[in-house]
Structure formats: C-alpha cells, structure tokens
Design brief:
This protein is of the alpha+beta class. The protein has helices at residues 8-16, 88-102, 106-109, 127-130, 169-186, 223-236, 246-260, 269-284, 328-341, 346-354, 363-367, 373-394, 400-417, and strands at residues 25-27, 38-42, 52-60, 66-71, 112-118, 137-139, 148-154, 160-166, 193-194, 198-201, 204-208, 238-241, 291-297, 306-308, 313-315, 322-325.
Length: 420
C-alpha cells in the first residue's frame, strides 16, 4: 500500500473537506495529537471511536501521487469515464482495468486504500445526498496553477454529471468562465453542437455529460466539425477594431513578459530567441485599424475535448473559452493534432491549415468580412504561441511535446515573415 506522496495531503483535504482542509488529520499522526472532526488514513483501517467512515480505492500517477479514487469494492471502474486517453496503449489500459474490476480483482490493479473519517461535516457534503455514491469517481486534477478536482456523479435516473471543484484561485476563474460561456451558448440554441448544461454547486460547477450513446472521435476535421464551427460563428459574430480588442493587448503583454523571461535551459536558446523576435516582427506588421470578426470560441478545440455522433458534435471543457478571432478553433484543431497526435513536419501542418482556405463552409463567412484567412491565421499564431511559450518558459520541467511545439512555431512564424 502507498502512503501520501508529495502534496496528496493538501489536495485530498481540499477535496473531501473543502470548508476546513487545514483541520484534517492525516494518519498515522504523531505526538498523540487529538483529531478534531475529520481525518484521512492510508492502508489498514484504524479504529476511531465516534467517527463515521467512507473507504476508497485509489490509482496513482507515475510519480506516486493519487490520480483517481472510487468507492472501495466497486465492480465498474467508474474512474475510467474521467480518462480521455486514446490510442493503443490507452485502450489496453482501459481494457485491463475493466477486466480486473468486473472479475472482482480490483485489488490487483489499485495502488492502495484510503479511509475518510468524519463526525459532523460529511465528506462531499450534499453531493453524496443527491447522487448514487456507489458510482462516484474522483480525479484529483493535474498539478499546476489551474488544478481542480473532477467528480463523476450518477443520479437516480442513471444520468452522469461532472462536478468541477477548483483547488486554486486560477482554477476558480476558469470554472466561473466556463459557467458564463455555457450559459451564453445555451441561448444560441445550436443545432450542430451539443454543449453541457451547467449548474453552480458550492464553490464549483456541475456540468452534464455530453457523451453520446455511440461516441466517435476523429483526429481529422470532418464536415460535421466545419458545420458546427460555422454555425457557432454565424450566431455569435461581432466585429471589433483590433486597436480596441483586448486580444491585441494580451498579445503585447505576453511579448513584453517573454522579453524579460529567462529562456528555459531545456530549450534551444537560439530557437527561442528567434521565435520571440519573429513574434515581435509579426506583431509589428499588424494594422491596428482593421476590423476583426470575432466569435465565441472553445479555446482548446481538440479531439480530446469532444465526441462525434451521427449528426452532432458534442463539445465539453469550455474553461478556456472566450471571444476570439473567427476560425481560431479550426486553426487550433489542425495545429494541435498535427503537432501532438500526428507528429507531422511543420510544412505538412501549414498545408493542412491552408487547405481550409477555400472550404465551402468558411468561404461564405469570410467573403462577408473585412479581413483575410491569412490575417486570421496570423492572429491565431501570435496569441497561441505567445501564451503557451510563456507558460513553457516558466515550467520547472518540459515534456517532449513542448519541443515539438517550438519547432512548429518557429517554422510557421518564419513562413509569414518571409512572405514580404
């Protein structure tokens, strides 16, 4: 059995007892300190007189921290609905968990057991009273400034909901933004896109599960993607002068911070310098007097944030949504899948982007706008690169995908600056 790793203590206390996380004891405790009203114990269940208890199995991350939790003895591996991995390895992992749980062999695959003790304040108070606690599953969140826990919940009708509990101030802002966007999109009455219903829940947000009965996924932009994006653009379109658009101020702020930010030692120094210089060069060529067509956008429109059914696109995780230049989501889908999924050379990614230039769903929209496809793509590159490069430079360690992104960014910026 595993014990608490790294910041498990703090995270688990916030998840189970959000109103009093600092008062939660983690057992075994030292010096004979008394337990006030709540405790979390790993491994063998201790005998605590006067306490109620919920027991959970958990699955660890590779670094030993707790990733998923589920009610002990569950035979359905409910946490897998919180897993969005795709590919052969991910599918094999999911199949292994499902098989072990269905045959009552969950002890073979779990990382350990923890017990949540309470007197007055029940863990997840209110939540377990509304939903079937047997099919509860918890994802403890991705480490970082935007960390939030996500709960899978099932109501009496068998419908699934997800509750997002922010664990940081930055995560609180993201959850609030998602609620605002989903409320706004609901008023549009989209025909080609399904988005979650949203309900506030304490300091968090509950969103409905939009996964269709026969869910599909695709790493290619299909006609349905184009139809859904075109509909969203058409119904939410607004023209904004670039000079007055916060989008431009944000890009310029990122560029100022990039100039002052030390270059990460894991990155190639000259490549990063060239990317920053080219960002400045491309930004300097922008005509601030131009009108920009903007639309409601997902902000992270990628295969791992959506499902496809026969006639609709089912899109979730709208935390990064905002009003962005037209086609931003389409550019992001092609760029991110090209770099992270297909691992295409930069030239192939650019070809895939420009293949959309004369798409029949986008051409009518663009013909009515005072801008061009190329200009919108430049705005996407400026914002996306300046935003994520700054995040990468501030990270403690970089993953391989960051290096793939940097190479693609370098090529894309060089392409536009060489047009003149």
């Amino acid at each position: 059995m595993s014990g608490p790793q790294l910041n498990d203590k703090e995270v688990l206390a916030k998840i189970f007892f959000p109103n009093q996380p600092k008062e939660v004891a983690i057992l075994p405790y030292t010096n004979g300190l008394p337990i006030a009203g709540s405790a979390i114990a790993f491994g063998k269940k201790p005998a605590l007189v006067g306490f109620h208890c919920h027991s959970f199995g958990y699955i660890n991350n590779p670094d030993g921290t707790v990733r998923w939790l589920y009610p002990l003895g569950n035979r359905q591996a409910p946490f897998l609905r919180l897993y969005s991995g795709a590919g052969l390895r991910s599918n094999a992992l999911k199949a292994g968990f499902k098989t072990a749980f269905s045959f009552g062999l969950e002890s073979w695959v779990r990382s350990g057991i923890l017990h949540v003790f309470f007197k007055d304040e029940k863990p997840l108070d209110g939540m377990l009273g509304l939903f079937n606690s047997e099919n509860l599953a918890i994802f403890t969140g991705t480490r970082g400034e935007n960390r939030k826990a996500v709960f899978l919940l099932e109501n009496e009708k068998g419908n699934h909901w997800f509750c997002k509990l922010p664990l940081t101030e930055a995560a609180q802002a993201l959850v609030a933004n998602e609620q605002k966007t989903l409320t706004e999109i609901a008023d549009l009455k989209l025909q080609k896109m399904v988005v979650p219903m949203a309900k506030p829940f304490g300091s968090g947000l509950m969103v409905s599960d939009v996964k269709p009965a026969k869910a599909k996924s695709s790493n290619e932009l299909l006609p349905l993607h184009f139809e859904a994006l075109a509909e969203l653009s058409d119904l939410s379109l607004e023209l904004q002068p670039l000079a007055d658009y916060y989008f431009l101020r944000e890009i310029r702020q990122h560029l100022n911070e990039l100039i002052e930010q030390p270059i990460h030692p894991d990155f190639d120094f000259e490549t990063v310098q060239r990317v920053i210089a080219n960002l400045q060069g491309l930004s300097g060529k922008l005509d601030a007097n131009r009108l920009v067509p903007t639309t409601l956008a997902h902000g992270d429109f990628t295969p791992w944030n959506m499902y496809l059914s026969h006639e609709k696109l089912h899109v979730f995780d709208w935390e990064l949504s905002e009003r962005l230049p037209m086609l931003y989501d389409a550019f992001h889908f092609v760029f991110q899948t090209g770099v992270l999924v297909k691992k295409l050379p930069a030239t192939a990614i650019h070809e895939a982007v420009f293949s959309m230039k004369n798409h029949p769903k986008f051409t009518p929209l663009l013909e009515q706008q005072p801008t061009s496809f190329d200009f919108l793509y430049q705005l996407y590159l400026l914002r996306n690169i300046s935003y994520y490069l700054l995040k990468y430079l501030r990270q403690d360690a970089l993953h391989m995908q960051a290096h793939w992104q940097l190479a693609a960014w370098d090529s894309a910026l060089t392409y536009f600056l060489n047009l003149d």
